[in-house]
Amino acid sequence: MNPPNDTYRPDVLTANRPLLWGAAFLSVIMMAPVAWLVGLSIKSNQDLMVGTDSVFRAPYTIANYLNILHSSQVFGWFFNSLVVATGETLMVLILSSLAGYGFARLEFPFRRTLFIIVLFGLAVPEQAVIIARHQMFNWFGLHNTYLGLMLPGMSGAFGVFLMTQFFRAIPKDIDEAALLDNASQWRIFWKIMLPQTLPAQATLGIFTFLHGWNDYWWPLISATKKEMYTLTVGLASSQSNFAQSEGLGFLAAQAVFASVPALIVYVIFQKHIVTAVSGGAVK
């Protein structure tokens, strides 16, 4: 008995074979730098100082990763990045969800004008306000603090826009029916509307976390004490003299170590990104 046509389509597979080979080829190209970095991280620093072509030859070692555990400040920088990225993510999700619900489902004066002002934030580059921001944070004594590192990332115009559009896609019959049942606006938001936006929140959370984790520009300016460095700034500070002290292999091991949390977050929540982008959350 032949399998159903909707589950087995060899003709479709054959027709798309060039696309599959092309996607595989592009995947190999994109993974090549990652493989090179991992290869550097498992080579001894002495071999790499002779030539980086030794990556393709044994022996290999995990000494660089062991050095991270014993003699590096990476764990302190790792903790700082984790606090900053997690704090930014939580606050962006809370503020963007509330603002998006207000813009999409509530009526209040100057709603459209305020939404346009929020959208202007997408067009203003961070570099344009960096001097004013630096002075403001200096006046309030927020430099070299976790709050000072997190606050700029909390003002996410993209998050407000994303959640507004997602809330608008939900049929209004749902909250109107809840209002007929004497449900408050807060209960409608918390119990009915918010659970339907989980794919969008997961997508926004991943983007925000990755931005906070990989951010280099603002932590470089705000964190002047070494103990307050984030992982990106800390790793960059060790690159100036790596050949004489820690070595290229150790630096590559630090980079791999720094990349693992972002990879784990993406792998766990990637299905929510697909759902949000495809618009399949609202039925």
List the helices and strands and how they pair.
Blueprint: H1 10-15, H2 17-41, H3 45-50, H4 63-71, H5 74-105, H6 111-120, H7 130-139, H8 146-154, H9 157-168, H10 172-180, H11 185-193, H12 198-214, H13 217-222, H14 231-237, H15 248-278
Helix pairs in contact: 2-15, 4-15, 5-8, 5-9, 5-12, 5-14, 6-9, 10-11, 12-15
Q: How would you describe the overall organization of this protein?
A:
The chain has 283 residues and is mainly alpha-helical. It has two domains: 10-64, no CATH class; 72-278, MetI-like (MetI-like fold, Orthogonal Bundle), CATH 1.10.3720.10. The protein contains 15 helices and no strands. It has helices at residues 10-15, 17-41, 45-50, 63-71, 74-105, 111-120, 130-139, 146-154, 157-168, 172-180, 185-193, 198-214, 217-222, 231-237, 248-278. The longest helix is centred in the N-terminal third of the chain and has 32 residues, at 74-105. The protein is globular. The model has no long low-confidence stretch (mean pLDDT 81). Belongs to the binding-protein-dependent transport system permease family. It holds the Pfam family BPD_transp_1. Part of the ABC transporter complex UgpBAEC involved in sn-glycerol-3-phosphate (G3P) import. Probably responsible for the translocation of the substrate across the membrane.
